Structures are given as C-alpha cells and as structure tokens.
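Incident review: delayed structure delivery

Summary: a single-chain prediction request sat in the queue longer than the usual turnaround. Root cause was a stuck worker, restarted by the on-call engineer. No data loss occurred. The affected request and its eventual output are reproduced below so the record is complete for anyone auditing the incident later.

Affected input:
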Amino acid sequence: MAKPEKGKVSPEAYQSVMLDEIAGRLADIMEHLKETTPEGVDFPIEDILVTGTSVVNFVKDYPYRKIRSLDPVLNKGPNTAYIRVNEEAKEIPVEDREDVPISRPKATIEYVTIRVASGESATIRMIGHF
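Output delivered after worker restart:
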C-alpha cells in the first residue's frame, strides 16, 4: 500500500472526519428541537393575592423546571399588577380584569416577580405551559 503524500488525506480518513462532523451537527439540531418543542403540559397556578411583591419560582416549586409560557396571566383586580420575567428589566403591566400572554421560544422562564403599588392589591391567576 502506497504512503499518502505529505499534506494529502486519504479518502477514507476524509470520509470519517466528515461523518463525525455531520453527527455532531445532527446532535445540535436534535438538542435545539428538544428545547423549542413544547411538551404540551398545562398546569394551573393557584390564585395569588399580591399586596406588595410576590415571586413564583417554577424551578424551586412545582413543576420543578423552567417553563415556556404563561397564558393567560389574568389580573382579577382590583389594581394594576406588574409582571417581570426572570431578571428582565422590562415589567409588563396587567390592568384590572386584563389578561396578558407571556411566552418564550423555548423553556427559559424560571420565575416571575409580581408587584403592585404600595397600599394596593391584586389577585393574579396564571396557567403555565411546558
């Protein structure tokens, strides 16, 4: 068997390298699909009476994992509530008797912080999805 020239790669070695690269990329694609495809599980969250600031942590409490969406987040009143997802700077105002969907392309919602203005209160109802 002839020795390959310096700097030349045999077709068999090239094929092996390319197959390894394809396998790695397919694994990345499968991981992406797993992260972005919802599992289709809905879970209701008990009504939360907010008189200051409340945190609902989905990793420390049921369902013990990050979720994909909250739909709807319903403010049963009587005052405006402000929802913050994880550490995002933006708060989402939810007026009295308004419902707002919160969703992400993949399961990244670890917790939500709900607050109302000082001296006010609101009752919040949510349904989570993962």
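Verification: The first strand starts at residue 42 and ends at 50.
Action items: add queue-age alerting; document worker restart procedure.
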